């Protein structure tokens, strides 16, 4: 699967496995929550995903994200 994401979408995608809220992702990236939501909607559409978990799995499969075991993703989420 070849997916072309913008640099902003790529930055948001990299934080989706952390299980942070969209507001927290926005704070980390210095953008508003509605902007994060728009990027996430574009990511879902481009990947053909219907939810966050599917987007992360598809992105990993497409080589857009490194594969992370579920336990490691959850551990990172709790460490922030």
Question: How do you describe this structure in short?
Answer:
It contains five helices and no strands. It is mostly helical.
Task: Provide structural commentary.
The protein has 80 residues and is mainly alpha-helical. The chain has one domain: Arc Repressor Mutant, subunit A (Orthogonal Bundle). Helices cover 64% and strands 0% of the residues. The chain has 5 helices and no strands. The protein has helices at residues 7-15, 22-29, 33-47, 52-61, 70-78. Helix 2 packs across helix 3 and helix 3 crosses helix 4. The longest helix is centred in the middle third of the chain and has 15 residues, at 33-47. The protein is globular, with a radius of gyration of 12 Å. It starts with 6 loop residues before the first helix and ends with a helix. The mean pLDDT is 88.
């Amino acid at each position: 699967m070849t997916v072309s994401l913008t640099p902003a979408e790529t930055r948001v995608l990299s934080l989706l496995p952390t299980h942070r809220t969209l507001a927290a992702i926005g704070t980390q990236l210095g953008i508003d929550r509605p902007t994060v939501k728009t990027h996430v909607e574009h990511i879902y559409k481009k990947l053909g995903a219907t939810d966050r978990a599917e987007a992360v799995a598809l992105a990993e499969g497409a080589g857009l994200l490194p594969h992370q075991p579920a336990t490691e993703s959850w551990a990172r989420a709790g460490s922030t």
